[in-house]
Write a structure and sequence with these properties.
Blueprint lengths: L6 H6 L1 H15 L2 E2 L9 H7 L10 E2 L2 E2 L5 H18 L3 E3 L5 H12 L5 E5 L15 H5 L1 E5 L10 H11 L3 E4 L10 H10 L3 E5 L4 H5 L12 E5 L10 E5 L4 H12 L5 H14 L2 H23 L3 E2 L8 E5 L7 H10 L2 E2 L1 E3 L13 E5 L1 H5 L7 H12 L5 H15 L9
Parallel strand pairs: 1-13, 5-6, 5-7, 7-8, 8-9
Antiparallel strand pairs: 2-3, 4-10, 9-10, 11-12, 12-15, 14-15
Helix pairs in contact: 3-11, 4-11, 5-10, 7-8, 12-15
Length: 418
Amino acid sequence: MHQPAVPHLAASDPEVAALVEGEARRQFDTVRLIASENYVSTAVLEATGTVLTNKYSEGYAGKRYYEGQQVVDQVETLAVERAKALFGVDHANVQPYSGSPANLAVYLALANPGDTVMGMALPAGGHLTHGWSVSATGKWFRSVQYGVRKDTGRVDLDEVRDLARAERPKLIFCGGTAIPRTIDFAGFAEIAREVDAVLVADIAHIAGLVAGGAHPSPVGHARIISTTTHKTLRGPRGAMLMSDAEFAKPLDKAVFPGLQGGPHNHTTAAIAVALGEAARPDFREYAANIVANAKALAAALSERGFDLVTGGTDNHLVLVDVTSKGVGGKPAAQALDRAGIEVNYNTVPFDPRKPFDPSGIRLGTGAITTRGLGVEQMPRIAQWIDRVVSAVDDEAEIEKVAAEVRELLAAYPMPGWA
């Protein structure tokens, strides 16, 4: 059953309660390899379901537009102080509802419509809010995009520098959603200084690895850091902005009143809990294990003939081009889902296929590492992936894999299910 239990929900609305139980069971029975997902702790789950959701709190601690903030101010201050201590930053704002509004706040704070901004192209591994054409950031600003080398799948900082010199952007974003390799924050910072741009590091995917010492930190290189609070950081669905003291006021004004109303106080409390967990010694071990599992999974997939973008990984993420297996990313992902292996289909650099039917699948090891799976299980997961991708229309084989998945996972506890 779902843990913590939901007896009042079950009594009041059994239909919704049944859906909650069904999702908890699905998560327990599935090898969850979506790189942007994880399992939060039971403590984080409890924090998100508290009476803090009842309180409206426009403004910031000590400067609210509603009365009755004595406790909420302490909750938000605690989250802010924990973020500052964990990441070693001057300023933190824990109010953004998600990663996209957090990034939009950076534009609102520092740029005007029509200004030139620069980010990684979406097909190369960047994020929509780094200036891609279908995003507001690509419509309201003059966006120039850098990519990766075709021969390596990696960013070429010489090409980034040439583009920055030619275009003179006001903002440069580094980071993205499908980058399997270490981000060279120092290299990007050098380019930003040369063209008098503000470097923004979007570490949404790797924040937990940064906090746990398994990936270099952007602090001291990027003037502004944006992150979600879930993914590898293992918190609730939310976001944070962190920065040098110089940008504290404009970023805060951009979040509220620029883009949002009152913060979600129950989420703020859960962020505080997750940040407290991330400051513990065992989280450093967890972050290291994420990377070890990703490297082991990548190696096992490579041995089975899968084509890995960049040839491997340095972090939690493995990007796989399944073209050589004679199948597209979408049917591969859908077949894997039926087999109890949850991934997402994803474009790969220079993908000849359309974004809704791309050539790749994206995998991440954050969630399975939370469950306690280790490098010794990665070859077996790679074998399952190979069996399913090689037989996307063979439902008997797919169900056989699903049964094997359930059998394995029964031995690994999951926060949120008892």
